[in-house]
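Postdoc handover notes: sequence design on the structure in folder B. Input tokens:
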């Protein structure tokens, strides 16, 4: 009977040790959660103004990018430079290699000839048309 009582006592002790270990695990877990939440709140308070500044910086950058895209859109043109016909569209520059038809029906050939309203003309060195078929004054630049 003494052996059975000893086994039972040992089992009870083991169960209590396991319960204490489980309780300690939960206490440590809760302490970590409280520490993380507290640390987050302190960091949020400490760095909130920097987060605001970063937000403003991103907003300004986005505005500048949109303005640059708008200006680049105004730069879209077909021009003759160094004897070749160049197309500048949305910031991409390429040599015109095949006939280009503009939205208004103006057709521009790779040799610089263009047909607008049934009349064939030639773009001379330095001349440019916007992508609506209108002449762009020479020397007109768009600053970034």
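Designed sequence:
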């Amino acid at each position: 009977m003494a052996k059975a009582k000893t086994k039972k006592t040992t089992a009870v002790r083991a169960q209590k040790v396991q319960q204490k270990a489980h309780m300690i695990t939960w206490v440590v877990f809760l302490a970590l959660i409280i520490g993380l939440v507290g640390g987050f709140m302190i960091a949020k308070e400490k760095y909130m103004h920097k987060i605001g500044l970063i937000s403003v910086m991103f907003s300004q950058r986005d505005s500048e990018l949109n303005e640059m895209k708008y200006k680049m859109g105004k730069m879209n043109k077909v021009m003759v430079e160094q004897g070749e016909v160049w197309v500048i569209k949305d910031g991409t520059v390429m040599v015109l290699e095949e006939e280009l038809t503009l939205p208004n029906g103006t057709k521009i050939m790779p040799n610089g000839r263009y047909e607008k309203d049934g009349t064939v003309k030639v773009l001379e060195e330095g001349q440019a048309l916007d992508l609506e078929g209108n002449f762009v004054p020479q020397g007109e630049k768009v600053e970034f």
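Context for whoever picks this up: DSSP finds one helix and nine strands in the chain. Don't rerun without checking with the PI first.
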